[in-house]
Amino acid sequence: MLRFLVRRTVAGAAMLLVISTLAFTLLYLTGADIARNLLGDNASQEAVDLRAAQLGLDRPLGERYLDWLSGAVRGDLGTSWFGGSSVVDLLASRLGVTLSLVVLSTLLSAVVATVVGVWAAVRRGWVDRVVQVFSMAGAAVPNYLVALGLVLVFAIDLAWFAPTGYTRPEVSVGAWLASIALPVAALTVGCIAGTAQQVRSAMIDALRQDYVRTLRSRGLPERSVVYRHVLRNAAGPGLSVLALQFVGLLGGAVVIEQMFAVPGLGALSVASTRQGDIPVIMGVVVVIAVIVILVNLLIDLAQGWLDPKARTA
Fold this sequence. Notes:
- The protein is an all-alpha fold.
- The chain is built from 12 helices and no strands.
- Helix 5 runs parallel beside helix 12 and helix 11 runs antiparallel to helix 12.
């Protein structure tokens, strides 16, 4: 297991290095004149040249990347070109907000999708058909349309929640839960749909295996066969889909945060991209890449625990 963990960790570090290199290169090479874009068309050439020198844009790209990389390794991702705030501080103030949305959505999706998928696979019949229709509808409808529907029903018609805004948990836990209820629900619907379908299919395949008939012939209770043996063997595909859904939720959070005025990483990335604040954009890319790599590492460890053969893959 230790070799498996070391191998996955080294692969994740290599992936992070590749992602950061590509992102840095693309961000700095695609901007024709970054200093001109920052100062505007009316700025004089002298002012543009001075600004470029202040930002180090007159140095070779490789030298700039190595400087950024050496700082990133020490936990310094530079400073924002607007306001001079530390990128790490900006990310730290937004990361918890986005993670609260995505992690809660993932946990809710995992629990509900597992219950629904197992129920559909065991009961079959009309339950299975309803779950399949829900899965197709949930995967087809984009989360921003789900968000609009939730706002119309629960914020405008019923007035149960505020349509926009965010309350920090240190102010009031109840108000915080109320402020993230609709964004989490908007993110969760599609995730439940995709994961429940995968759990259902994996459970049906596992229920058809010979060992299930053997367990039943030995007189084991059906509940024990389903939840102790079949669900464990079917959990692998469900975990893989859940990891992909987590990555999708990070992307979906960009739109949902904008719609509900939630100050998370999505809102920060949109504002930084609009301004051309490359250090902050690079920080967002690195943080999201690290989160995705860590989640995949945890999923790989869970897969290795559930199926020892996966450790040699």
